[in-house]
């Protein structure tokens, strides 16, 4: 038996840091969406549990127990085998949840392959704050340390561009550089009739990690400026803790034109055009 699972890029349209717990974990309030670009996992029945990584972004990705995919598999308990192939297209440590989305896709795929229920919420959260939100990709509001997830608004049609300049920004360093850790929460997302009205509302919100990340990696500011300068861009912002940034457009056609222009002008950058992605529920 073989199962395929898609691990879409996660985009934090907003990211408000609203507090810090006594154990050091930061409290977040974020509107999360997913893009139809990402990694792909193929999981096949096997005697042993193995991981093979291929694809254009495979270099440097561990294939041992350090990889979140194998950590996810371990949540089902010992003694189970699967041959897992990870086709890697998303940059690592980039603020778009590549590793977390891979882990969530592995959980979905292995549950199907082995005929098991998903591990409990506490176990899933132990893999990382972004893993729970990646389990069922769709517009979601994520609060707390990643455990408080509620439905997000229905999205209008739009195009997206993702850009990573090829620098890794360590998440702990970004949080350490944050001036305030008790910022206002995000108001309830109202829903929007168009990409333009959505971008206008998002423009009144924040990614509180953008300024500290930019201080550590000034090229992030260059990327945001380059995206904002493309024709039809409605909003340009950093996702997560960086360094990937995104642009919102009225259509995929506009996003693809912008992505082409950005790639030509900056051949060293990773650039992808996309649309929002929602995982269709599995058929009973």
Automatic annotation (TrEMBL):
Record EC number: 2.7.1.148
Residues forming the catalytic site: 10, 130
A Pfam family this chain is assigned to: GHMP_kinases_C
Gene3D superfamilies: 3.30.230.10, GHMP kinase, C-terminal domain
Binding site residues for ATP: 91-101
Residue ranges of domain GHMP kinase C-terminal in the record: 205-262
Catalysed reactions, semicolon-separated: 4-CDP-2-C-methyl-D-erythritol + ATP = 4-CDP-2-C-methyl-D-erythritol 2-phosphate + ADP + H(+)
GO biological process, one term: isopentenyl diphosphate biosynthetic process, methylerythritol 4-phosphate pathway
Annotated metabolic or biological route of this protein: Isoprenoid biosynthesis; isopentenyl diphosphate biosynthesis via DXP pathway; isopentenyl diphosphate from 1-deoxy-D-xylulose 5-phosphate: step 3/6
Residues covered by the GHMP kinase N-terminal domain: 67-128
Keywords on record: ATP-binding, Isoprene biosynthesis, Kinase, Nucleotide-binding, Transferase
GO MF annotation terms: 4-(cytidine 5'-diphospho)-2-C-methyl-D-erythritol kinase activity; ATP binding
Source taxon at top rank: Bacteria
UniProt-listed InterPro entries: GHMP_kinase_C_dom, GHMP_kinase_C_sf, GHMP_kinase_N_dom, IspE, Ribosomal_Su5_D2-typ_SF, Ribsml_uS5_D2-typ_fold_subgr
Family to which this protein belongs: Belongs to the GHMP kinase family. IspE subfamily.
Role noted for this protein: Catalyzes the phosphorylation of the position 2 hydroxy group of 4-diphosphocytidyl-2C-methyl-D-erythritol.
Cross-referenced PANTHER family: 4-DIPHOSPHOCYTIDYL-2-C-METHYL-D-ERYTHRITOL KINASE, CHLOROPLASTIC (PTHR43527)
Name of protein: 4-diphosphocytidyl-2-C-methyl-D-erythritol kinase
Species assigned in the record: Rhodovulum strictum
